[in-house]
Amino acid sequence: MDISIRNVTKKFGNFKALDDISLEIKDGELFALLGPSGSGKTTLLRIIAGLEIPDAGSILFHGQDATLRPLRERRVGFVFQHFALFRHMTIFDNVAFGLRVKPRNQRPNKREIRERVMTLLQLVQLDAFSDRYPSQLSGGQRQRVALARALAVEPQVMLLDEPFGSLDARVRAELRKWLRRLHDELHITSVFVTHDQEEALEVADRVAVTNEGRVEQIGTPYEIYNNPESPFVYEFIGNVNLFRGRVSQGVAFMGDVKLMVPELADAIDSPATAYVRPHDLNLSREKRGEISLMAKVVSIRDVGPVARIELVYPGNNKIYEAHLSAERLAELNISVGDNLFVSARRVKVFLNDGTKSGKIGRNIEKTNSELTSV
Q: Which residues does 301 contact at the CB level (< 8 Å), separation at least 6?
């Protein structure tokens, strides 16, 4: 079931939760709505479900207008953050509930209900717990029960609202992998809301990053992380170092460094910001290239396969972060207080236009072949 969201706007009083949002969600896709609190992602999910009606725009299911279609006719399964299981019912009865309350002419018989419920419990690896109650299960197990209950009514669309938000980090990581495997097996069109960037990038086929009721960028996890289209996406997704400066006639001046940005040739003394991911910073004992900068190591956090190095530039006193592999750290033999030369594999420069970061449009990216440092 493909879903088309066309020019959807929704207000609550004077607050505009959604501002002319358009999205296309493909049949069988696992699609993430990612953004900070208040960005509109849950409101959009509720509109898709039929729990809210947009003030403008339309929702189409497989080309058919479903904007005003009642919830019961949309055939959507909904999984909430806090499970919403019936505490007085067994796990079996929780999963069977949606089937038992169907209209009589649509309701399966008892044997069919039992077969379907047990099949789903096997799918979510909880068939041995069918006679237990929710209080007797862990948080991760209860969330799997909630998902089985949503699947029992054979939805055409699965909607998940922060499904792992109330669980601890280890359980969340396990359930993310499990959800991805389950989706690959069932291929139900699924939309899930999250503010956890790692969760969205690990699980989803595509991601829409939302901010202040609008969509900042839509793309695959690779595109979202490696090719952000706005400063908001750059800052919201992953860690990033920011270097302030100005751009004039195709040259960016970032402190003592000049970057050639010919695509910004029409900018005249305009404020700008350069963005560099920590893993795109090179550290070395010797100067590499004319625009390598020297910085002092102030902190080393050597945990796991990636070491996090904090550096400060003379006269700046701002802390920047570089990520090195454990092997590279051992090779350089870095200690706190060392002075190192810093260069960059990839830099992206955005003009500041006086509005919030999410509203900056023009940018230019320089890669290793053209630029070695910021």
A: 307, 308, 309, 310
